[in-house]
Amino acid sequence: MKVLRRVYLDNSATTPIDKEVLEAMMPYFCEDFGNASSIHFFGQRARAAVDRARHQVAELINAHPAEIVFTSGGTEANNLAIRGFVEANQQYGRHIITSQIEHPAVKEVCIDLESRGYEVTYLPVCSDGIIRLEDLKEAVRNDTILVTIMAANNEIGTIQPIEQIGNFITELRQRGQKIWFHTDAVQAVGKIPIDVEQIKCDLLSISAHKMYAPKGVGALYIRRSVRIRRQNIGGHQERERRGGTENVPGIVALGKACEIAKRDLPRSYFRLKSLRDKFESQLKERIPDIVFNGSRENRLPHISNITFCGALGEGLLINLDMHGIAVSTGSACSSGRVEPSPVLLALGRSETEARESLRFSFGKFNTEEDVDYVLEILPEAVKSLRHAASLYK
User: Fold this and answer.
1) Who's near 242: CB < 8 A, 6+ residues apart?
2) The domain spanning residue 31 has which CATH number?
3) How confident is the model at residue 336, as a pLDDT?
4) 3-class DSSP state for residue 219?
5) How far lies 183's CA from each of 57, 64, 133, 186, 385, in Å?
């Protein structure tokens, strides 16, 4: 009996744990299991591990360790950054600027704040998925206190001009305006160089499970001059900024993942880009009528979002899964109904085109053989679905 080959190309959703990361975190389950807030030997062993991880995260993004707050993941980091910031600084204004293609962990926080009396401007993006700086500059008002723009999009991989945004916000602040900049860098950290001093952000969100560490842990960078109101009440951890007993094994894992990312980033970047470029170039030769979504230049090295005209993405996903290949539609499921991707709609794609799209996201454990296998299976799957659709019509 032939064993089904398994190829995982959904690394933007989550990644497997790196063996180095697993090895680093294991002692903190059974041996060094202490509460990092306890003053005895066991607690101080745990505290030392948390402090070491804080340094590792800070070094990856060129921050000071005291500016790193550990959270339960990217969603909590975004909530703490946005809600915590505006609640602590609402005396300066109640206007927020974001984009139409933010992750729900940002967009839904903004929608909730609107119901509480805040005003939010949702900037459009061009057909390549990038905001126009001119639109941002025109949207700023005297009561604008926060700009939150993601570093890179989770569905199409497009990289936003966050350095230019940071420079613009800094200029406004130098002129006396009380305005700050947050970026959701969950997809970007560990994939491309991120330097908080270079991009001049005030808040930056990180998630461990996007970079070969476990789910349930993340971090928020908070520049030392920034005031924030904690959202978790009931403990004095993280310098009074995030209550709750520290997830020591998870924090250790995130720290190790950041250390590995810093060590391997240049090599990893070019390897992922090579796999993705091979996949895309050969796909163009083998399958007609496909459209690549998002910027072709300013994008992450591992994401490829493609519209297969005439073939529903959900059907393709199921077909590929039957052949052992895991990908994503990039769509959100709600009440059992698959909605077309808001990101692709914001790019100007029709609902039909959005439903005919798939996201392929490569990881460091993928191989050339994985790509070859997908290139063998995918053309026939597209052809079959297109044929079925034409018969139905």
Assistant:
1) 69, 70, 71, 80, 220, 230, 231, 232
2) 3.40.640.10
3) 44
4) strand
5) 16, 17, 15, 9, 39
**Closest C-alpha among 300, 24, 303, 330 to residue 189:** 300
The Cα–Cα gap between 349 and 354 comes to 6
Strand partners, 95: 119, 144
pLDDT tens, residue by residue, 186-245: 999 999 999 999 999 999 999 999 999 999 999 999 999 999 999 888 888 887 788 888
HSE-CB of 146 using CA atoms within 13 angstroms: 33
C-alpha to C-alpha distance for 82 and 76, rounded to whole angstroms: 10
List the domain range (segments joined by +) for residue 379.
Answer: 7-15+265-392
Which of 1, 2, 28, 4 shows the shortest CA–CA distance to 213?
28
Indicate whether 230 and 350 sit together in one domain.
Answer: no
Identify any residues that bridge with 18 across adjacent strands, giving them in sequence order: none
With 60 as the cut, is the pLDDT of residue 166 above it? yes
Distance of alpha carbon 44 from alpha carbon 379, whole angstroms: 57
Catalytic residues, which ones?
333
